[in-house]
Amino acid sequence: MAEEDGFVIHTRARFGFVAPAGSSDDPRVRWITQYLPGEVARELFVARDAGAGEQQQTVILARALGHAYFREWGRRAHGLHIAFSDIEFADFSI
Asked: N or C: which end of the chain has fewer CB within 10 A?
């Protein structure tokens, strides 16, 4: 189901940024609730089935959250890369 319809991630974690000069990259803890499309669920399941660990799956989620939440699906903050760490929790729902 998540692979078709996507899912919602609700997380509290530290987010930092790698961005062009002149922007703030200081990491800080944020609460984020964000819909992510089915292609992200598929990527996570493929990685899991291939033996990917938590760190590799976190990279997939960071890239997806960067695109959806911080870059607003490509409408702003082009070139911004997200660091997603110190995850206090991550809940997923479909």
From this structure: N
Q: Which domain holds residue 32?
A: 2-93
* Coil, helix or strand at residue 88: strand
Number of domains in the chain: 1
Q: Is the pLDDT of residue 19 over 60?
A: no
CA nearest to 27, candidates 13, 46, 38 = 13
Nearest one of 6, 15, 12, 7 to 90, comparing CA atoms: 12
For residue 16, CA distances in Å to 7, 34, 38, 39, 89 come to 23, 17, 25, 24, 17
